[in-house]
Design brief:
The protein is mainly beta. The chain has one domain. 6% of the residues lie in helices and 41% in strands. The longest helix is centred in the middle third of the chain and has 5 residues, at 41-45. It starts with a strand and ends in a 13-residue tail after the last strand.
């Protein structure tokens, strides 16, 4: 999959990232729209990242493509 990855201060790249299978009580979402939040800016422009690499963009919407065991109220195809 692709992600906006911050590798170091001022080093953000649209890069390949390992795919995953959702575990229990987790869902996998294909992102359709993503925003960069004000809390992401200090990580990019300053020294606020606790670790590298870090994927940016936690404000998003998309479509559920896979659900983990125990997920009962959301199904593949749902928009979130």
């Amino acid at each position: 999959m692709k992600a906006g990855v911050l590798y170091a201060k001022d080093d953000i790249r649209y890069a390949d990232w390992p795919d995953f299978t959702p575990g229990p009580d987790m869902i996998k979402v294909k992102m359709r729209v993503c925003g960069i939040c004000g809390s992401d800016l200090p990580r990019v422009l300053g020294d606020a990242a606790h670790f590298y690499p870090v994927i940016l963009g936690h404000e998003f919407s998309g479509e559920v493509v896979e659900v983990g065991e125990g997920v009962e109220t959301i199904k593949p195809g749902d928009r979130v």
